Amino acid sequence: MKLLVLGATGPTGQHVVQRALDHGDQVTALARRPEALHDLASQITITQGDATSAKDVAQAMVGQDAAISALGRSTSVRADGLFSGAAAAVTEAARQTGLRRLVWLSSFGVGDTLAESSTTQKAMYKTFLRNIYADKAVSEETLRAAGLDLTIVYPTTLTNGPAKGTYTVDDHVPMKGAPTISRADVGHFMHLAVHDPVWIGRQAVLTD
């Protein structure tokens, strides 16, 4: 599969890229800082650009079979329009290039998943994560309206632990307390989902 990865330099995106390479996919990464992917320069195609620019995304998207967005804001609690801007750029680029398949990283507690959150989770999502979650909600409205072959991935709190490979994933998962999941397992699932048509048109909640 020819696969475009957005957010390839981030902690989750790195896992997506490695999984794709391990399984023989041809990877193109759109990155503002191509030098951050220097170690992979001989294995992937690196295109410099901004994920919120429709022009940049479209140039990287030409000829791709599918795209995965693992964009994130690291430790920042401000979205600064990253997710809504990237969603607008991706949908316009997909319209121009004809790409259909998209796997998009969100967060558990965004949109309809908030209703399924535990009391502990709700307190966190409605306070210091409020700005980021609001921008992610806007991005999802944009993506769903575009009519793409879309999977939105909703992990619980992310950790840097190793992949377990035994995570729980479903459209709806009952929550208690403040569950977590490793970025390695999220990267594993996102790569799996982009190849598996059973996840088209669905949301995927992930947790340990």
From TrEMBL:
Query: Which residue numbers delimit the NAD(P)-binding domain?
Result: 7-197
**Which Gene3D superfamilies does the entry mention?**
NAD(P)-binding Rossmann-like Domain
Q: What are the boundaries of the signal sequence?
A: none
Q: Domain of life, per the record?
A: Bacteria
Q: Give one Pfam family, short name only.
A: NAD_binding_10
The protein here is known as: SDR family oxidoreductase
Per the UniProt record, the source organism is Leucobacter allii
